[in-house]
Amino acid sequence: MKKGKIGIFDSGYGGLTVMRSIVDALPDYDYLYLGDNARAPYGNRSFDTVYNYTLECVNWLFDEGCDLVILACNTASAKALRQIQQVDLPKRNDNKRVLGVIRPTTESIGEYSKAGVIGVLGTAGTVASKSYPIEIAKFYPEMIVEQEACPMWVYLVEHNQMNGEGADYFVKQHVDRILARNPKIDTLLLACTHYPLLIKTIKKFVPDSIKLVTQGGIVAEKLKDYLSRHSEIETGLMKGKQRDFVTTDDASTFDLQASMFFGDSISARHIEIGTH
Ligand code: DGL
After folding, report:
1. Residue 192 bears catalytic tag
2. Domain 5-100+217-270, second-level architecture
């Protein structure tokens, strides 16, 4: 049987922050990154739209030979993952798998907070889904979780506006709001894979006493662990160290931004998915 790649999906550039950590932790595998930049952001879209877009992208990655797909997007993990795992995958007669980023993050988040009070910064969709408070309660029932939706932050990243007065204004606004909600917060989770790209600006407004947690390292470690426990998946994965990138928007714009975010030079291919 032909061996498969690991697919990594995000609405845009954010998933590259997760891919960076995954590739560093698991360098031997073949990876295919899909950024649905033409339809980003997903964060303010309805449940059905996020589900439909995500499913289209996952199916595209499957058709391109990915056997395991990581939804490196909290919004898609919150709104589409369960239905894909419970309804769409069982209809297929193959061994394809889809994993998200919320579960691995919520399993580990308790290790970061001493006070047991954390702030979750995410997209409107992730926050409204309440996925974080619900999932964290399963692992850390005592933990207090405050949430704040930051609807402009993904736009800042997608449009390369991470620094400057505009970014300062929108970042400060939401950091101030979440910290005002509970003065005991000692940990802020960046629960959107785009947000690490704003980290310099975020740090300007977060006191040093508060820990900032990003997901890339956590997701990579959990994936390593998952592959060590699932040899039936691991042995079916190709190990040619190939990294390919596709975007639903303009490929040369993607290359410029993505290379900066990913740290290596990237030459992406444009693909069409659905109707924009
Ligand atoms: N990076 C995605 C997330 O983690 C993107 C959000 C969006 O497209 O709004 O939620």
Report:
1. yes
2. 3-Layer(aba) Sandwich (3.40)
